[in-house]
Amino acid sequence: MFAAFSRLIAFSTLSCLLLAPVLARADTAAGAKMVPTRGTPAQVEGTWCGIGLLHEFTLQINQQYQAFEARLSRKNKVREITGQIKGDTLITDPQRNVVLVLKAMNDELRITQGTGQFALAQGQGFARARSGGCSGT
Fold first, then answer.
1. Is 26 strand, coil or helix?
2. pLDDT digit string (tens) for 83-95?
């Protein structure tokens, strides 16, 4: 009886391990949006277009789980940015006395804190690009 029970547990465990990658791919293939939880970073990879006062800016983000690298551009000027993502909050590393804190909400990134040249941009933000680019830059 014990041997049969042990085999059943081993079979169940093996089945779960084999099905996990298939189920994960199925969820991704269905286009499901990841809802950030406390330990899961928001999915912000891609192109973001400035809205409001930032309409001339484009933010291109490359995400590696909780770390990101980004290029903030306006006209022909580009600033390289790095930082961390904690849940739905992006925090840039201090660069040239400038720190940005952005909050991901649906398809927008809103500046919740800024220093240096972005101190007055609080409340402004970026919208996810719809066709891969931004028309205002």
1. helix
2. 999 999 999 998 7
Residues 21 and 65 in one domain: no
Q: Which domain holds residue 8?
A: 1-32
| Element (DSSP H or E) covering residue 65 | none
Residue 37 lies in a domain: no
- The number of distinct structural domains making up the chain is 2
Burial of 4 (0-12, 13-18, 19+ CB in 10 A): exposed
Q: What is the pTM of this model?
A: 0.68
Do 112 and 71 lie in a common domain? Answer: yes
Environment class of 102 (CB within 10 Å of its CB; exposed 0-12, middle 13-18, buried 19+): buried
Q: Which amino acid is at 40?
A: T
Residues in the chain, overall count: 137
